[in-house]
Amino acid sequence: MDDMKFQAEDFSELIDADALRQKLTDLTAPHDGVGTDPKVRSAVLAELKAAMKHGRDLAERRLNEDGGGLSCAQRLSHLQDEIIRVVYDFALWHVYRITNPSAAERMAVVAVGGYGRGTLAPGSDVDLLFVLPYKQTPWGEQVVEYILYMLWDLGLKVGHATRTVDECIRLSRSDMTIRTAILEARFIWGDEALFDDLQARFDQEVVAGTSSEFIAAKLAERDERHKRQGTSRYLVEPNIKEGKGGLRDLNTLFWIAKYHYRVRSQVELVSRGVLSRGEYNRFVKSEDFLWAVRCHLHFLTGRPEERLSFDVQREIAIRLGYTQHPGMKDVERFMKHYFLVAKDVGDLTRILCAALEAQHVKSPRSQGFGGLMLKLRGARGPAAQPIREAPGFVVENGRINAAGDGVFRDDPVNLIRVFQIADRLEYSLHPELMKLIHRSLKLINAALRDNPEANRLFLSILTSRNAPEATLRAMNEAGVLGRFVPDFGKVVAMMQFNMYHHYTVDEHLIRSIGVLAEVERGRSGEDHPLASRLIGTIQNRRVLYVAMFLHDIAKGRPEDHSIAGARIARKLCPRFGLNDNETDTVAWLVEHHLDMSTMAQSRDLSDRKTIADFASIVQSMERLKLLLILTVADIRAVGPGVFNGWKGQLLRTLYYECEPHLSGGHSELSRKEVVSEAKAALEARLAHWPESERKAYVGRHYPAYWLRVDPDRTVAHAELIRRADAENRKFAAEVTTHAFEGVTEITVLAPDHPRLLSSIAGACFVTGANIVDAQIDTTTDGFALDTIFISRELPDDADERRRGERITDLILKTLRGEAPLPDTVARKAAAKGRMKAFRVASDVIVNNSWSDGYTVIEVTGLDRPGLLYDLTRAIATLNLNIGSAHISTFGERVVDVFYVTDLTGQKIANVGRQDVIRERLRDAVEGRPEAGSGALVMQTAP
Question: Does residue 700 lie within any of the structural domains?
Answer without folding.
Answer: no
